[in-house]
Amino acid sequence: MGTFRDKGGLWENADLMKLATPEGFADDPAAVHAFYNMRRAKVRACQPNAAHVALAALQQDPRADVTLITQNVDDLHERAGSRDVIHMHGTHLVALCAACDARWPAPEVMRADDQCNCGGQARPDVVWFGEVPYHMDRIGAALARADLFVAIGTSGVVYPAAGFVRVAKQAGADTLELNLAASERASDFADARFGPATQVVPDWVGEVLT
């Protein structure tokens, strides 16, 4: 499954203003639904990788108190066994009524004429550019009480998530970046390990649990 911002990623040949804004959806809901239908089908065909499984094991260990926050809009963390995952950018596996904010499981294929029971237009429950991420109060509380903040596989360019490391550090948390390569926020971290997430995350979790 492709990433969004890397070279060759999903956004490289996509017009963000047409596919990931409320205005783009209003102009051409069929095109937006087609994009997210493709993403939904790919996610459902994928399986959690070793990094997802390792994080679930860490969260399930009674010695650990883990708050898992993701910018991803899939359910791979949950399928790996993680619980109570904070989806700050929503999920394209859920449909959202643009009129009344009702939510329900998204069908495999969503269409421009899909409607809520109230008559409002249905859209993917994904936070688009210009919209406020979900659960920010809960995320802020978790950052304030954290002993360790770990960022995994992020570019470090999308706010507000890119600023979480500084919030956690100012609250007294130690900081660690696990990434394929140094992110835009690498200098804000006290420590870092670089390599594929399927390698560095299980290795780090194994050290923590032993």
Automatic annotation (TrEMBL):
EC number(s) per entry: 2.3.1.286
Active site, per annotation: H89
PROSITE patterns, alphabetically?
Answer: SIRTUIN
User: Which residues does Zn(2+) bind?
Assistant: C97, C100, C116, C118
Q: Give the first-level EC class, as a single word.
A: transferase
Q: Name one Pfam family in it.
A: SIR2
Question: Can you give the residue ranges of the Deacetylase sirtuin-type domain?
Answer: 1-210
Gene3D superfamilies in alphabetical order: SIR2/SIRT2 'Small Domain, TPP-binding domain
Q: Which UniProt keywords apply?
A: Metal-binding, NAD, Transferase, Zinc
Which InterPro entries does the entry mention? Answer: DHS-like_NAD/FAD-binding_dom, NAD-dep_sirtuin_deacylases, Sirtuin, Sirtuin_cat_small_dom_sf, Ssirtuin_cat_dom
| PANTHER family documented for this protein | NAD-DEPENDENT PROTEIN DEACYLASE (PTHR11085:SF4), NAD-DEPENDENT PROTEIN DEACYLASE SIRTUIN-5, MITOCHONDRIAL-RELATED (PTHR11085)
Name of the protein in question: protein acetyllysine N-acetyltransferase
Q: Which species is listed as the source?
A: Octadecabacter dasysiphoniae
